[in-house]
Amino acid sequence: MITRREALFGAALGAVAVAALPALSATVTKAEIRGLPREKITLVAPPFVHPHDQIAKGGPK
Fold first, then answer.
1. DSSP string across 1-61
2. In this structure, are residues 50 and 41 in contact, taking their beta carbons and an 8 Å threshold?
């Protein structure tokens, strides 16, 4: 059986873990975003999406 102390300790530990997530995530700078290749596309008839493949080819765009 779980005690009240164990439940509160678990909740506090979970809150600390969630608070630490932004510090652990990788941040992307504006310069890195500007370095990505840009592509001008034309949209097809409804639903107005660009022609695409089921599996992405190449790197991020």
1. ---HHHHHHHHHHHHHHHHHHHHHS----HHHHHTS------PPSTTT-----SS--SS--
2. yes
One-letter amino acid at 21 equals: L
- As given in the structure block, the two tokens for residue 41 are 């596309």
Q: How confident is the model at residue 32 (pLDDT cuts 50, 70, 90)?
A: confident
pLDDT digits (tens, 9 = 90+) for 1-31: 889 999 999 999 999 888 877 766 677 788 8
**CA–CA separation, 16 and 14 (whole Å):** 5
pTM for the complete prediction?
A: 0.36
